[in-house]
Amino acid sequence: MTALEEAAEQSAAATSADTGVYTPLLVPVQDHQETKAAEPILTVRGVERSFHVGGRQLHVLKGIDMELTPNRLVMLRGRSGSGKTTLLNMIGGLDQPDRGEIFFMGQPFHQWNDDKRTEVRRKRIGFIFQSFALMPLLSAWENVELSLRMAGVPRSQWKPRVQHCLELVGLGKRMHHRPFELSGGEQQRVAIAKAIAHRPTMLLADEPTAELDSQMGAQVMSVFKDIIRTEQVTICMTTHDPTILEVADHVYQMVDGKFIHT
Ligand SMILES: Nc1ncnc2c1ncn2[C@@H]1O[C@H](COP(=O)(O)OP(=O)(O)OP(=O)(O)O)[C@@H](O)[C@H]1O
């Protein structure tokens, strides 16, 4: 039995409120028929990106086409160096393509300057990194609050939203712990709460389970499934882990800067 199947089985008997142990329900994201005709929230067409390295041109992305539709869990899979993070940065408006187009909710990221992309990013996109990226001196609560402050959410809305997000990721009983008082899996769940607090449309996660053991990795994936359903978000994540791919709605396989069909 894989770690994910184990997590699903545990979830069936979940008693998180009683035990404080997080065992979320692993359920299908939603009826795929329902959103089949849905407009994509992200469209990537013919994207290329090169870097100058040591006097040479390194062609990292060689013509990427992809779409993300609402309420999906999409994974980018590929070897180290194949270009996954470069693409994720591009989708999130952190970098721009040399060629090609990126439309996020109809907005042309490839034509916009950094300030304009940052504005959209703060309001509509959430990021999760391999290394959790939490402020070490702030509690779980304060870390989540910080992201609401950054997104310009009115202070009067902070308390219920922070509480909701931390409960959603199963940390209702550890809200006031600081990162060093939490396990790796719990820290990653704080990072997820922080990333969804401002109600993004799209959540981007770069190897979110890479530093976790398989059990904790499975918990994080269950949280992802839950938040797609309850928060109406689309998640695009990179992974090396073949056991995690089975919960994806779609997998893009990247080889040397291109998608291949498997
Ligand atoms: N800013 C940059 N300047 C120069 N080279 C870069 C830059 N960003 C990425 N690269 C190079 O582009 C290639 C692809 O890197 P990228 O991080 O996108 O791969 P990846 O598939 O995410 O790998 P990993 O799984 O190890 O994170 C690598 O050879 C990397 O060294």
Automatic annotation (TrEMBL):
SUPFAM superfamilies: P-loop containing nucleoside triphosphate hydrolases. It comes from Paenibacillus ginsengarvi. InterPro entries: AAA+_ATPase (IPR003593), ABC_transporter-like_ATP-bd (IPR003439), ABC_transporter-like_CS (IPR017871), MacB-like_ATP-bd (IPR017911), P-loop_NTPase (IPR027417). Belongs to the ABC transporter superfamily. This is ABC transporter ATP-binding protein. Pfam families: ABC_tran (PF00005). Keywords: ATP-binding, Nucleotide-binding, Transport. GO terms for molecular function: ATP binding; ATP hydrolysis activity; transmembrane transporter activity. It comes from the Bacteria. Coiled coil: none annotated.
